[in-house]
Amino acid sequence: MNTNFKKTSIFITVILFILLIGGQVFAYNTKTSKKNNLSLFTQNRKEKSIKNLQTLNEVLDSLVKDGKITSTQKEKIVSYVKIKEDERKAEKEKLKKMDEKQREEYFKNAKKNVKKDMFDDLVDQKVITQQQADTIKKALFEKNKSTKIENFKSQLENQVKTGIITKDEENKIIEYMNKKINEKKAEMEKVKNMTSEERKAYFENKKSQPKSDFYKELVDQGILTQEKADNLKKAMQGSEKQNRHFKFKYKNK
Question: What is the pLDDT of residue 34?
């Protein structure tokens, strides 16, 4: 009986040891995974920040070349962006040191503060004129739009390689996309010629309309089957890399 008791005790001890070690390994892996995810997120933010600055530099260089802004103004704009980025980093470090309650209070107060548009701030600081600000915004908008279109085309090409769509379907999708872009341009030109009251009414009316679904339209146009559209949408969304660090929005005035 003593022998059986000893065997049982040893067995239980071994099981408890395995569970203990297993739990520690699991906890370690979970922590490591979270840490790795955070590192990856931070790395992505850094890459996006660099990419945005590169885009800004390219656009500003082009505007300097065209005589829309001076090289001095370009340097001041880039310096402004870098200062704001440093401020954001400092703010992030400050947040890290806060406890949950302090952080909650911080974000509560932050919501009350109206975030000033970067270009409005540059105009207020007499770095650029309002006309120059609008020109830069429009140029950035066009640049970002062009980049998105190229990325979309590149992703479509990948879907052809993986067999989700055919080359013929890819060409038809691009053709339809270009048609939509031209329609949007025509719409913006129409809006540009409206009075402020007409423009306000126009956009209010658009808000009440259902949002368009590009992939649904591809089915409606007979370009793709529903199954292919669903597969393409899933694949495209999976490969998309959205840039949320700072966005440049252009509004027709």
Answer: 45
The answer as to whether 97 is a domain residue is no
How far CA 215 is from CA of 173, 218, 222, 236, 246, in Å, comes to 10, 5, 11, 11, 27
d(CA 12, CA 18): 10
Given a cut of 90, is residue 229 above it in pLDDT? yes
72 occurs within a structural domain: no
- Maximum average pLDDT range among 30-44, 129-143, 159-173, 174-188: 159-173
Q: Does residue 138 fall inside a structural domain?
A: yes
Predicted confidence at residue 48, as pLDDT, reads 56
Q: Which letter does DSSP use for residue 98 in this model?
A: S
Distance CA 33, CA 113 (A): 35
Residue with tokens 């980093």: 89
Q: Could you read off the pLDDT of 65-93 as tens digits, one per residue?
A: 999 999 999 999 999 999 988 988 898 88
Residue tagged 């300097």 (tokens): 64
**Residue 219 within any structural domain of the chain:** yes
**How many structural domains compose the chain?**
1
Q: Which residue has the tokens 């440049």?
A: 248
Q: Where in the sequence is the domain holding 233, given as residue range(s)?
A: 134-253
Neighbouring CB atoms inside 10 A of 6's CB total 10
